[in-house]
Amino acid sequence: MEFLSLTLLIFLPLIGAVIIFSPWFPQNEVKIRRFAKGFSGIVFIYSLFFLAFFNPMEKGFQFNETITFPGGKPWIEQLGVNIAFGVDGISMLLIVLTTFLVLLALIASKYSITKRHKFYYSMIFVLQTSILGVFAAKDLFLFIIFWELELIPMYFLISVWGSGRKEYSAMKFILYTFAGSVFMLAAILAIVYYNYLQTGVLTFDLNTYTYMKAFVYPTVFGILAFLGFFIAFAVKLPVVPFHTWLPDAHVDAPTPVSMLLAGILLKMGGYGLIRMNLQIMPEILKILSPLIVILGIINILYAAIIATAQKDLKKLVAYSSVSHMGIVLLGLGAMNISGVSGAVFQMIAHGVISAGLFMIVGVIYLRTHTREISDLGGLGQNSPKIMYFSMIIALGSLGLPLLIGFAAETLAFYGAFTSEVFSGFSLFNIYIPVSIQILTAIGIVGVIFTAVYVLWMFQRVFWGNMFDKWRKFHDASPHEMVVLISLIAVIVFFGLYPEGMTGIFVPTIDGIMKLI
């Protein structure tokens, strides 16, 4: 296993970005695209080796690496900051998901990206390095550095290659995320300082605050720090009412960027909630779990109802993402192994399904130059492959049994239904006897709305009478088929065999919950 280096995996895409953007690299679009896909394929295969040698039963972080400077000194010795990486079962799967979706997004870029190719592909690789760094960082200071680094490439990817109000949407994304990051930074500094007062050691080592945590935070202090983390991750997930940046960013971003935005970037919020709010402050999460559960139910229902009213394909899929991320909140608020496992499974499942949905929207837009559902219809007559691919992905989104969405949602809802975190809550000193079982049942109604808007959208787009102007609508190209078949393979395989995925991260979650 000596050839496995997390540092190399994280910075390989950055090396690819430097190579592509260098003056001596050819300006030829085909060569740039082929190099980017080939290099991304190497990164994906390399990540699979980590998965192959990962031991799910081993507690804590694996593949640990710390970069030291001459004399064995850490990065910032005075502050106890290290360049340290490591993964557990949760981050391992998210890293593989990242390398997988970036590869597919680059394949999908062939027809979507028509200008400034060197800049585009280099920005994709910079984005990949920043995301991998977030999932693998074992130092809180390093975590926030990678978290902020992601803003730079995303701004350019939306503002340069997007459409509509692209500059507005890119800036809105930046402002929302950066504002949330301020609260996260404050929370990190607070817990680091509190640890220093208790132990006399100044450190940003994530392991110290998670797997090796030795004390409980005071309630008031803990709630304030918890909310600092929560606001930052609620923006990224996103949680209503911090979600308004998402529809704008999705609508105006190019198709491959929308795939990455929904498939990976939203998962950074879920990962942060589990890693920081659950692992670092479980005692505070127990206090605030009713709030988390209620916010999850609101997310599920509110966004599903809004999605049902959408006339734009991309906005419909964007709001469906907000709704499905509510299931992550619900599972987290359950505070048991089943619920948290369902939250992680939902993150992976939604990552694959949402990437597929945005790919379908991009395929349709590329041929029709419209996303208005009312302007479409009967497209399945000329494109049976696109229609059947879309049907499988759409059914996965609504949670059809034997597809990955069903396995994830069932685990999360089961965890919530069997949770014992609360049997009611107080509002203005008035006790409201609402059990989590009732709230879970209300949340399941969101699944019904999902079926409504997904099937309605599918029927309006692919069935019925075809407009004459779409008579030349052609079926999927080889590049599009590679992307869609790859995503469908994951949706079907892990829907039929969910243990192939749960076997990787459930032992990690079991270990986390035993420490609480």
Give me the count of strands: 4
Indicate the overall shape: globular
Tell me the major beta sheet.
2 strands, antiparallel
Average pLDDT confidence is 90
Percent of residues in β-strands: under 5%
Structural class: mainly alpha
Distance between the termini: 32 Å
Uncertain runs are: none
3D structure, described in words:
This protein has helices at residues 6-21, 29-53, 89-112, 117-136, 140-149, 151-161, 166-199, 206-209, 219-236, 245-252, 255-278, 282-308, 313-334, 337-368, 384-397, 404-417, 436-462, 478-496, 499-515; strands at residues 62-67, 83-87, 425-427, 430-432. The protein is mainly alpha-helical and 516 residues long. It has a domain at 288-516. The strands form two sheets. Strands 1-2 form a two-stranded antiparallel ribbon. It has a two-stranded antiparallel sheet with strand order 3-4. Strand 3 and strand 4 form a beta hairpin. The mean pLDDT is 90.
